User: Fold Thiamine biosynthesis protein ThiI from Chitinivibrio alkaliphilus ACht1.
Amino acid sequence: MNRQARCLVLFSGGLDSVVAAQVMKEQGVEVELLHFVLPFDSYAGNTHESVRTYAEQLHLPLHILMEGAEFLTMVRENHYGTGSAVNPCIDCRIFRLRRAKQYMKEHGFDFLVTGEVVGQRPMSQRLELMPLIEEQADLHGLLLRPLSAQYLEPTIPEKEGWVDRKSLFAISGRSRKMQQELLRKYDLRSQTPGGGCILTEKEFARRYHYIEKNFGMNLLLFQLLSVGRYVLVSKEVCCIVGRDDRDNQRILAYLERNDASYPTLRMAHTEGPLGVLISQIPLTKKLYEEAGAILARYSKERQNTQTEVLVDTPEGSSMSCVVTPASSQFCQERLL
Assistant:
C-alpha cells in the first residue's frame, strides 16, 4: 500500500489559507500548517493566539517560523520592485516559498500548498507571474494552489494522483464570495479578509525611508518602525516613544532580543511611555534633556511645570534629567 502523501500549507489564518487547508483535508492527504511571523511580531512576546485558534478548529498541527535579519535583507535587496510603499511582494513570496521548501524537505513533506487566488493581489498573484515565482523558489511542480488550480498547469501532486484535480477550484479575482461559501460549507471561521501587510502602509514607508537615509537600517530599527511615535529631537536625533504599555513591552522585547546599544528614557516617578533614542551624532546632556521633554509630553505629567526623566545609557549607567514637558505643537511639528 502506498504511503499517504504529506503537504505543508502556508497558513496565515486568513480566509484563503483556512479554506485551502480544509480543501486539502478533503483530499485525504496528511496536512500540516506553516505560519510565518513578520519581524515586527517576531520574538516580541506575542503568542499568535488567533492563528493558533484557526489551526485548532481545523485539527491540524501548526508550525511557526519567526523572521529576522534575512527578511530585512530581502526588503532592501529586492529584485522585482515594490508597490506604492516598501512592499516587495514578489520577492517576499519567493523568499517565503524558499524557506517553506527548506522546511518541507527537512521534515519529509511531499509538496507545498498556498491559498493564493489568481488576480486577488495586484503584484504576486497575477496569473502570468505565478510560474515565475514557482521557478524562482525552485519548486518545479511542487507548489499547489487549490483555490485556482484549474487556471494553472497540473502540479506533481495532481499528476501523481495524490490529489484529485477535478475536485480543485477555479476561483479568480478579488471577490471572496466563493471562499465565504466554502467556509460556511465546512463550518469554519477565519480572520476577517482584507487586512494588509504593514509594508504597504504609507506611514511605515515614510519612516522606513527617513530612518534608512539618516540613521542606517538594522533589524532592531526595522522592528521598531511598527511601534510608537517617531519625534525628531533635531535633524540628527530621533526619539521613539511608546504609545501604550503594549508598545513599551514590544520595545523592551526588541531591545533585549537584539542586545541593543541605544539609550532608553523613562519617567522617574510615574508609569508612562518608554523612549528609545537614535542619533547620528554623540549625545549630550542637552540632547537627553530635549528628548526627555518629548517623552514627558506623552506622559501623565505633561501639565507639570517640571518633571524628572531617567536616561539609561548603553554603557549601563543612569542619568537624571529635570525637564519641562514639550508642547503639543512642538511634538506635532516634529512627528515623522
In short: The first strand starts at residue 6 and ends at 10. The domain at 6-186 is CATH 3.40.50.620 (Rossmann fold).
